[in-house]
Amino acid sequence: EVWYDGLVSDWCGGCDDDAVGDGHDAASRVGTDCDDARADVYPGAPDAWYDGTDSDCSGGSDDDADGDGHDAASRGGTDCDDGDPDVHPGAPDAWYDGLDADCAGDDDFDADADGVAASRYGGTDCNDARPDVYPGAYDAPYDGLDADCSGGSDDDADGDGHDAAARRGDDCDDGRADVYPGAADAWYDGTDSDCAGNDDYDADGDGYAVSWHGGADCDDTDGDIYPGSPEFNDGVDNDCNGLVEEGDPDGDGVLTGVEAAAGSDWNAPDTDGDSVHDLYELGDDLPLVRDTDGDGAADFQDSDDDDDGIPTAAEASGADPADPLTLPDTDGDLLPDHRDSDADGDGLMDAYEGTADTDGDGLRDFQDSDDDGDGVPTAAELPAADTDGDGLPDHRDPDSDDDGLPDATDPDRLTPEQQDSPADSAADSAADSGDDHAPDTADSDPAPVNRDAPKGAGACAHSPPLLLWLPLLALPARRRAP
Question: Residue 18 needs a FRET pair 20 to 30 A away by CA distance; which of 30, 60, 110, 293 works?
């Protein structure tokens, strides 16, 4: 039989286009048998994959078992799983399902492709959405991102367990892991290791750095020893002034160191020689020294402590320099005269009253409550008044109105000449020296009336006749009439 010649021999029963007799005409004869030389190759025949034969004449690749259009990788193709048509290059690939559906060859649990699987699927990548976050990655501090997946605070750059002070933490140096609150702090190394905020060169905490490091504390082991500290008689230089104050060589009751600090002379009990010992002039607020008058000169250097014009020596005269209880306090206001600008409390400043003794009673005016000894307190006599115009202010004039009556017994001590008006008195003084209403030319006794001698029988001869008195008696009444 010659195949495919259109002639059918008797023995094959009309099979001129089916050379192998597999029941399928050759494809070249408009049949379906893709290989009419092999009886095991025809449509519907069993087709073993990857043998190079399309036994079932499907027309597909014998190396693409799952029919997804991609030959198996084992046959030189790109299909990483030729048993699953959903797995092939370019296929949609859902993360974290364990299937490399797109045959990319990557870890299905490493979505950000940083080489580390996500921590929730057994890996160590704490953020699988960012390729710059994984264990060992560079972690910039203070950006809010735990880039190296260390689990520590991003505000703790040195990893000492304390956030930086600049990030509202308490670590004063976030670049050093040995510096944090509570860390061991060695003195004098220049590092505040425990972040206490204190001076590393002030071990005793007295506020002064140790002297050998540029400070002024001569003993940095004792918090009671520092410049300006109160000095005690204890054999120790408490105030670091280089002196051990154990004595009082001038006996004024002030230790040498205190006087050295104040500037007074520790070898002289009375530095300014004003009869008041330094102890009572330095004051009670040391190391601040007393300056009563505020003139910039401390009392122990000031010859006039209260600046009243009267030297301190004069105001403290008679006192025992070493006994404050003997210092004069004329007005009893507990302020000694040398510090009181009105020592006698009479309302007149000492500078005005001065050191004169107007009434000669042994008390100087600035210490005399009755300067003129007229029985009227100085405070009651107007300091600026000179009632009779004689140049003496009333507080120094025992007869302020010059009427012949001492102020102490004169009910009208401020009205001259028996209560005459000043104009009348001035007129009378020329013609009637005694103001007794008798002209001097006719008055045998020109003394003021209140000083006329008592008149007896003989005196009547010197008196004007009664008729002459009558018109004069009416004169004062007319003067006083409104």
Answer: 60
